[in-house]
Amino acid sequence: HPHWWRYKAEIETTSEIFFLFLGIYITVVGFLGIVGNSTVIYIFCSTASLRTPANVLVINLAVCDLIFSSVAGFPMTSLSCFWQKWLWGVTGCKWYAFLCAATGLASINCLTAISIDRYLVITHPFFMLDKSSFKRVLFNMIVIWGWAVIWAMPPLFGWGDYIMEGFGVSCTFDYLTRTWANISFNYSLISFAFVVPLFIIVLCYVGIVREVMRCGRPKEQQCYVKRFNRYNNRADNQNFRQEIQITRVLACCVVSFCVCWMPYAIVTQIAISGFQDLVNPYMAEIPVMLAKSSAIWNPIIYALSHPRYINAL
């Protein structure tokens, strides 16, 4: 992109150690993402108590992160870092960016679906007894991946674009070109594929917190069980505590996703709003590297905090 030409001398004189560090970092992140998410998928699929309709969403999130790690990590990005240039051509750049975009967007869609599910489990448990079916989960999968592909595809057909970024070792959305088509796409993307899902997630967890506070401690468990027992005599305090703990775990997953992706979203909005001069190669590359680590945190969070996952381990 012409924007990066002004930094040509700076990029060419960048230390080889910097590119070596990027390559090692991406390799490690990719390896951890592949191993961690493969483990999550195996445990959730092989453990009978974890094979529930609700956990299909967790498995799907791990699949998103596994694909993202495989594409955004080794070998494409890491090898390009070691060679200090993009190795896979223009077509490779576009399909690499498309796969990263589709899986990244599917991840936030999946987190949104999980948040809605958690909200309903905590606030309307008896309602969920009749609704937790694999048919409903299949519908969720279609929406999650369909909405992701809808927003990842347009740059392949002229609304927006995929280009190399920063130091020229990875590719992403074109957030630099000041054309109506590109500006409208980027604003639409950030609004409908990031802000709206994030708003829904926040609403769900605010609702969960309000429900727990409304029941009040130490009576919160009795409140939940009393409502749950109207439809299921097996409900007990332990079940409630586990549901709350699982909700906290999944809330941590949401927070980690936002921490990893928010700097990148901010940089793209700074650029697309007309302040491209503020975006240098380092300012572009560092948020991208942080975003690529998003796929490694969920398995770590599960291993440290998810009660049923820990038992399965």
TrEMBL record:
PROSITE patterns registered for this protein in UniProt: G_PROTEIN_RECEP_F1_1, G_PROTEIN_RECEP_F1_2, OPSIN
Lipid bilayer topology: Multi-pass membrane protein
Transmembrane regions: 17-44, 56-75, 95-116, 137-157, 185-209, 249-272
InterPro entries: GPCR_opsins, GPCR_Rhodpsn, GPCR_Rhodpsn_7TM, Opsin, Retinal_BS
Record's GO cellular component terms: plasma membrane
UniProt entry tagged with the keyword Zinc: no
G-protein coupled receptors family 1 profile domain mapped to chain residues: 36-302
An example Gene Ontology biological process: cellular response to light stimulus
Main location class: membrane
Compartments where located: Membrane
GO molecular function, one term: G protein-coupled photoreceptor activity
Record key words, sorted: Chromophore, Disulfide bond, G-protein coupled receptor, Lipoprotein, Membrane, Palmitate, Photoreceptor protein, Receptor, Retinal protein, Sensory transduction, Transducer, Transmembrane, Transmembrane helix
Family: Belongs to the G-protein coupled receptor 1 family. Opsin subfamily.
Protein name: G-protein coupled receptors family 1 profile domain-containing protein
Provenance organism: Helobdella robusta
